[in-house]
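INPUT
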Amino acid sequence: DTEVTQTPKHLVMGMTNKKSLKCEQHMGHRAMYWYKQKAKKPPELMFVYSYEKLSINESVPSRFSPECPNSSLLNLHLHALQPEDSALYLCASSQGRRGKSPLHFGNGTRLTVT
Amino acid sequence: DAKTTQPNSMESNEEEPVHLPCNHSTISGTDYIHWYRQLPSQGPEYVIHGLTSNVNNRMASLAIAEDRKSSTLILHRATLRDAAVYYCIQEGNQGGKLIFGQGTELSVKP
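OUTPUT
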């Protein structure tokens, strides 16, 4: 079990669907992250939230829309995805202090776009 | 973005030490070096990090070269549960921006 909980564990969606991925942590962390990981590849950073504000967007297409309703929750809203967006989506959190705050990862949501 | 280079794969025998190398030739004086590992079907897990000095914790040791252009993660006695992909990451001035390298897949033989 990890301290970062992601739901759902698996998601299958069509290209016209709208869905959301959820991430929750109760460690009091102030920074939260979304990464995308394709099979046999390293995780790729998508977004970083710091104190509930978006601080980094790695030029992610607008069909991915992050939201941080409060310091414990992070959502990723999905709309009009493509099959190539199928991947493992990882959420992480940290205390947000550079060089002093390890990232704690969830086990991810495995997304399949049909 | 800062890039690190690692061997694609390494093999080790159980209960023997493992030295996992990483090159980070573009590192600046204030960049941290982080190591994470990812076991099959799990999210990455923090292993260790450092700036200039060698670091030890319960999981591993981190040896950083004097010129800081390379580092080595040391697992003192490999177990079968240490089989994973190990990622070396260079954290620059933009805090929170941890960009994963390609990683080294470590296999451990009984």
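end of record. The interface with chain A takes residues 32, 34, 36, 41-46, 49, 51, 85, 87, 91, 93-103 of chain B (CB under 8 Å).
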